[in-house]
Amino acid sequence: MGGAVSAGEDNDELIDNLKEAQYIRSELVEQAFRAIDRADYYLEEFKENAYKDLAWKHGNIHLSAPCIYSEVMEALDLQPGLSFLNLGSGTGYLSSMVGLILGPFGVNHGVELHSDVTEYAKQKLDFFIRTSDSFDKFDFCEPSFVTGNCLEISPGCSQYDRVYCGAGVQKQHEGYMKSLLKVGGVLVMPLEEKPCQSESGKSRLVQLPPLAVRSLQDLARIAIRGTIKKVIHQEAVNKNGNGLKNTPRFKRRRVRRRRMETIVFLDKEVFASRISNPSDDTSCGDLEEERQEEEVTTPPDAKPEPPVNFLREKVLSLPLPDPLKYYLLYYREK
Fold first, then answer.
1. What is the pTM of this model?
2. 55, 108, 120, 216: least CB-packed within 10 angstroms?
3. Which CB contacts under 8 angstroms, 24+ apart, belong to 299-303?
């Protein structure tokens, strides 16, 4: 399923195509999609297909098409501080993007039928937290993944503001799915698309974590990181007169049609004339300006400098013991 938009060469170009096709319509969803590289959730030997608008499946590991995930994210109407339940959480790609919007005081739970996929999701989550520079740009609501059948969640579990089920739901289970939702919440699911799967002999009630558990250390880390971000932002305002900006991306090279040379035969005489399309009829000055713009925006073999992680630099410069610095940075590698 998918193929609604053209393939991109990288994650940003994929998001550009999704925006152009109106699958991504809000700024929050766009930021979340750009922050997490879809290719990071592929096995190494399949990464060449990561930026195609197609679903991917290998064994029990499954990713829906990007156009599907973007529609889901928009339909969920996510806001900071909400609680989210992902039924069939898979690789954790969607749950991690949702976590970037929910913020540190949200709730982010996932239930996955296959234990090997649950472990895969935990590995990918750990990789994102440890290595991605995007992580420090957000206040992240870390997903919690458990293995179990999403139709056997313990009745004592709390309800959620937002619920998504990626698997097909039969009509007889519609009421059960709605019971997981708070009053006024949003449920997104495919209804009666295909039978739900269950492993015989492994039936058990699924116990989800409590809706909100924050240790004093976690609360302190959230507060300190938030304060440092405000200091960085204020320093940028004082220095540049505006807030921090992302490193500008190079514009794509503009394609300019060449003027057409035409030869006209008239009574054995040959007349050469130059005919141009009205939309291409530009003055020499315009052409020179366009040429200069191309040279500035797309210099040969030039790549944008990697963005500076101001938060990390500021934390490392603080007069604090190294273990505390590493704790504030979530023990990240970069």
1. 0.73
2. 216
3. 302/250
Each of the 334 residues of the chain gets a pLDDT tens digit; together they read 566 777 778 999 999 999 999 999 999 999 999 999 999 999 999 999 999 999 999 999 999 999 999 999 999 999 999 999 999 999 999 999 999 999 999 999 999 999 999 999 999 999 998 888 888 888 899 999 999 998 888 877 889 999 999 877 788 888 888 899 999 999 998 876 543 433 334 445 676 766 666 788 888 988 998 899 899 888 888 887 654 445 445 444 433 444 444 444 445 554 444 444 444 444 455 555 555 555 555 455 566 676 788 888 888 999 999 999 888 888 876 5
181 bridge partner residues: 160
* Distance between CA atoms of residues 196 and 209, nearest Å: 24
Is 96 considered catalytic here?
no
CA distance 273 to 268: 16
Position 185: which residue type? G
